[in-house]
Specification:
globular, mainly alpha, about 210 residues, 9 helices, single chain
Length: about 210
């Protein structure tokens, strides 16, 4: 089971080419914070590990960032929007106007590990939402392919992130696993959104031509 299988299933479903989107390495500054915190956290398949809940303002910031980046491919949108909430959650200075507008939130700042879980939970919610919306637009055959593709992705994410932890130095294992899970979830969410948006554009174009 690998990322290429997931991509092929999506291409089969909608007849679209899908560029591979490799995961971006963990940024050094954030890694240093994560290395200092290595609790044992459960990793239920398909769900982010339990952690502090995101605030509505944090969810709204991700949604706003994705909206401003909607003309960009998933990798570019990822670069603009991912890791921002996790960084601000730790008390780091915000980057960009929207982050500067985040109010002082109760229960913040937090250590690096819980902050990674906060942002992962937001991307998980977005991934689930865009998966549902994409499924509503797909044919019955497409829905089945989408379910198979998502199961393949979840299995790949869990295995890849577990392996990344096991292949790291013990003091860095949890940091790498959490980083991997956040980034894999964010990239998958943005890829599902891209597919949904392309279908909506096709529907809109067909409606105009039919007039």
């Amino acid at each position: 089971m690998n990322a290429a299988l997931t991509g092929r299933a999506m291409a089969e479903m909608f007849g679209m080419a899908r560029d591979g989107v490799p995961r971006r390495p963990l940024r050094g500054v954030f890694a240093a914070g994560l290395f200092a915190l290595a609790p044992v956290m459960a990793a239920a398949q398909g769900r982010a590990p339990e952690g502090p809940r995101p605030h509505p303002a944090e969810r709204a910031w991700i949604a706003a960032c994705v909206l401003t980046a909607q003309a960009h491919p998933p990798r570019a949108a990822f670069g603009r929007c991912a890791w921002r909430i996790a960084a601000v959650c730790q008390g780091e200075p915000g980057e960009g106007l929207l982050i500067a507008r985040l109010p002082q939130l109760p229960g913040r700042p937090l250590p690096a590990g819980p902050c990674a879980l906060v942002e992962t939970a937001i991307w998980q919610q977005q991934m689930d939402r865009w998966l549902r919306e994409l499924s509503l637009l797909a044919t019955a055959r497409g829905q089945d392919a989408l379910r198979r593709a998502q199961r393949a992705f979840l299995a790949y994410r869990d295995a890849a992130c577990a392996a990344e932890g096991l292949l790291s130095a013990p003091e860095e294992a949890e940091a790498h696993r959490l980083s991997c899970r956040l980034e894999q979830t964010a990239l998958r969410a943005l890829e599902l959104k891209r597919l949904r948006d392309e279908i909506l554009l096709d529907i809109a174009a067909a409606s105009v031509e039919a007039r």
